[in-house]
Amino acid sequence: MERNRELTCIVCPRGCALRVTLGDMGEVLSVSGNACKRGEVYATDECTNPMRTVTSTVLCTDGEVTPVRTERAVPKALMNGVMKEINSTVLNKSVTVGDVIIENVAGTGVNVIATACKEIFTK
Amino acid sequence: MSEIKSFKYDLVIVGGGPAGMACAVSAYEAGLRSILIIERDAALGGILRQCIHNGFGLHTFGEELTGPEYAYRYERKVKEYGIEYMLNTMVTAVGADKTVTARNEELGIFRIEAKAVALAMGCRERPLGALGICGRRPSGIFTAGTAQKYVNMMGYLPGREVVILGSGDIGLIMARRMTLEGATVKGVFELMPYSSGLARNIEQCLNDFGIPLKTSHTVVEVHGEDRLTGVTVAEVDENRVPIDSTRELIPCDTLLLSCGLIPENELTLGAGLTLDRRTGGASVDMNRQTEIEGIFSLGNVLHVHDLVDYVSDEAAVAGAAAARYIMGAVAQSVAFDVTASFGVRYTVPQRITELCDLTLYFRVGAVYENKTLTVRFGDKLIYSRKCARLLPAEMQTVRLTRDKLAALGATSGEIKVGLE
Q1: Which residues on adjacent β-strands are paired with residue A114?
Q2: What is the tens place of the pLDDT at every residue in A42-91?
Q3: E-only strand ranges, B3-60
Q4: How close B326 comes to chain A (CA, Å)?
């Protein structure tokens, strides 16, 4: 039996209203309402394996925090594991935008990278 | 007594956020070299520094960046071009004669004579005092942006049990952020019958975490002596008056306010300019030049944008125009007023004084479905497009070309933007 699912696309600020038709096994049969190709990819992922980019901060040895993000989207179900690992990391060296801070976070195969430059002065 | 120090620059830019930096970069690329950015914070970047979430830059850079990364792109350009900037420096006055008064620790009070001034001070959040909520004033009540600064820049979690009033984007973003950091967000309450945030943020910040959004609801009372202990919420009727029978107490230790942004225009008013009541910003022409020649206004101080990408676009237009103005290349050739008619709350720019390609920005006043957006000059239709759905939260744009304006066969009159 076919069934429909309504989604709001989160790929860009336009926020298209998507309609996905799913088959018996939950497979995606068609996507409509999307203004671009990326909407179709989003809708397919969202119905099979939802993905999200996680952004947060890490604590630094100087007591400040600095912003980070996952380099790509990670499975939504693993977001909490990603947050746990980010929150147990302490940055002890200076970084520039794009530097890897955690490799293969929570076993996702995705790195956590710095999104700002941060200087840490060591004595 | 020694005299206060005095400097001379061609272009002084007040504010080193996204608008100020994009303006400086664009003025430099248009050939200007004597440029000074004045920033009151300890770093360039403005509010983007605390907006660590992603979603910025799709339009400008074709990729999805976080706020700090977006700011970094511009900061690198500023440094690469050798554009001068002062940090920890507060501008206290801008004169109609383009004299800028500022102060910092190193120079004390000082003055700059500029040939042009770009106002890029950004905006502020509507505070508790402007909302008329009953109760005492315990700690635990923050604007969403203040909470964002605590969490993202200072590393403090301001509370554990959170209620959010207003569905502005910063409130939605903070609902997700505080949830990820271990707080419980009990709900977002919005006075209007529709959300003021982007649809994608309702999806990824609320729905992802099962946080309820209740429209046509508001907080009517806050409880607690030293620390907030709870809030009373109620549904409102079509006149936005709370319905007593729907009052409900929600225990919480934190209330975040995401109830709108107000352009920060004290310096603009001090220069003798008046504000457009609908935008809360100056009234400008397509170059973002205000009613005082050589004073420009751009970014969120002019009108509140929902995307930083649009701020950058607008600031680039203003920066290039400021450079042309200083080089004596701006001449007024036409005098069209741009006005809002049915369904449209405001337009920016408010005037067109040169025949050129330009973008009109505007917002609708309510939710409209299946309307035709039109731009008319008298009985001439300049532009039209069909719109399935128009939301007040989403700024709209219309591109007008030089040829279309020239084809009007007039040099003055009223250009009306409206829904039909």
Answers
A1: A68
A2: 899 889 889 999 999 999 999 999 999 999 999 999 999 999 999 999 99
A3: 5-14, 35-38, 54-56
A4: 35
> Which residue from B52, B154, B208 is facing A55, i.e. has the nearest CB?
B52
Domain for residue A89, yes or no? Answer: yes
Q: Give the whole-angstrom CA distance, residue A60 versus residue B206.
A: 29
Please check whether residue A81 lies inside any domain of the structure: yes
As a whole number of angstroms, the distance between CA B20 and CA A101 comes to 31
> Nearest Cα to B194, choosing from B373, B415, B365?
B365
> What is the fold of B1-125+261-330?
FAD/NAD(P)-binding domain (3.50.50)
3-state percent breakdown (helix, strand, coil) of chain B, nearest 5 = 25, 35, 35
Q: What is the CATH number of domain B127-259?
A: 3.50.50.60
Chain B residues whose beta carbon lies within 8 Å of the beta carbon of residue A116: 49, 68-69, 72
Distance set, CA B162 to CA A50, B227, B228, B240, B253 (Å): 26, 13, 10, 23, 6
Closest-CA residue to B267 (of B113, B122, B85): B122
* Residue B391 to residue B194: CA distance in whole angstroms: 9
- With 90 as the cut, is the pLDDT of residue B198 above it? no
Q: Distance between CA A30 and CA A78 in Å, rounded?
A: 27
* Same domain? A40 vs A61: no
Q: What per-residue confidence (pLDDT) applies to B76?
A: 97
Percent of residues, chain B, with pLDDT higher than 90: 91
Residue A49 is encoded by which pair of tokens?
């394996």
Q: For residue A64, give the chain B residue with the closest CA.
A: B154
CB contact under 8 A, B55 and A54: no
**Both tokens assigned to A60:** 């630094």
Mapped onto helix, strand or coil, the DSSP state of residue B360 is: strand
How far is A55 from chain B, CA to nearest CA, in Å?
5
Helices B18-29 and B308-326 meet at what angle, rounded to 10? 40
**CB of B89 within 8 A of CB of B40?**
yes
- Would you say residue A119 lies in a domain? no
Report d(CA B11, CA B107) in Å as an integer: 20
Residues A59, A107 within the same domain: yes
The answer, yes or no, to whether residue A2 has pLDDT greater than 80, is no
Q: Which candidate in B58, B60, B66 is best for mutational testing of the A interface (most A CBs within 10 A)?
A: B66
What are the boundaries of each domain within chain B? 1-125+261-330, 127-259, 332-420
Nearest residue to B247 (alpha-carbon basis) of B265, B226, B225, B223: B223
pTM: 0.94
Chain segment B10-50, per-residue pLDDT in tens: 999 999 999 999 999 999 999 999 999 999 999 999 999 99
